[in-house]
Amino acid sequence: MTTINGTAGKSASIIEVTEATFETEVIQRSMTTPVVIDFWADWCGPCHQLAPILERAVAARNGDVVLAKVDVDANQRLAGALGIQGIPAVKAVVGGRLVAEFVGVQPPAAIERFLDQIAPRRESETPAEPEAPAAITDDTIRGWRETLDTDPDDVEARVGLALVALGNGNHEEALRLLGPVEHAPEAAAPLAAARLAATAADGGSEFAGVAAQAANGAPEAALESLIDAVRSGDADRRDRARKLMLDLFRLLGDDDARTQRYRRELTTALF
User: Fold this and answer.
1) Which pTM does this prediction carry?
2) CATH no. for residue 24?
């Protein structure tokens, strides 16, 4: 039995990947099975904390998702190409494109929500969907606030109040509300909208104008500027542009032709 990142490898869904095997084991494999990449190092304490949580969650999906472990010390060029600046860093690749990511140790519930975005649990394992929230009235808002008083991690209440804040032009409040539930699928679109609004309002950001374009009904022009930055910028600029592109994809939706086109271009630029 092999050992991966200090944990006995109990599942064929957990593999070690190098620069030489990345194209086959991650990009090509992701065309049929979602792949989650865990960038780690042996000296990294938080990496060893995250590893068993992530590995158990992937193994429980019974082959519906693959976990690719990448040792950043042994694969420095690959880590650099993908903009890894802190570890543990986890990225999800589906159909050859980067679709989700997080950095740092996350609790088991957040890991499950992250995996649900790319490899939903089978019907027998999936909890019933919550009922859609009622129309946003003063009573609804009051109810969400009361809910957070007793359950600060309630996703529906946080997302609902964040949408109200965004409607009032208060992106800072929306970001504050969504922070604790940022990995919940329901939070993806409002969080993307809040981040874009924050960038547009940041006079010191070189991407303020691009974000404003996106907010004012010109997402394709914004995506074109961002992909140019990914192709030609330094590591930090590339990473900031990539994150803004991912936010725009979340707002446009997976089926939008612009999302599909620029995801392909982003994949080509990154990989």
Assistant:
1) 0.54
2) 3.40.30.10
Predicted confidence at residue 172, as pLDDT, reads 94
Q: Which of 155, 161, 140 lies closest to 187 in space, CA to CA?
A: 155
Q: Which helix (H) or strand (E) holds 7?
A: strand 7-8
How do strand 35-40 and strand 14-16 relate by DSSP bridges?
unpaired
Residue 213 structural domain: 138-270
The count of other CB atoms within 10 Å of the CB of residue 3 is 8
Same-domain status, 260 and 181: yes
228: left (phi over 0), alpha (psi -120 to 50) or beta: alpha
Q: Distance between CA atoms of 66 and 34, rounded to whole angstroms?
A: 6
Q: Which CA distances in Å does 215 have to 137, 143, 194, 257?
A: 25, 30, 11, 18
Lowest mean pLDDT among 2-11, 193-202, 237-246: 2-11
Are residues 89 and 146 both part of a single domain? no
Catalytic residue from among 14, 47, 65, 79: 47
Is the domain of 75 the same as that of 155?
A: no
143 and 117 housed in the same domain: no
- 17 classed as catalytic: no
Inter-residue contact 84 to 135 (CB < 8 Å): no
Residue 127 lies in a domain: no
Of the residues 4, 44, 82, 178, only one is catalytic, namely 44
129 occurs within a structural domain: no
What pLDDT does residue 223 have? 92
Active site residue 261: no
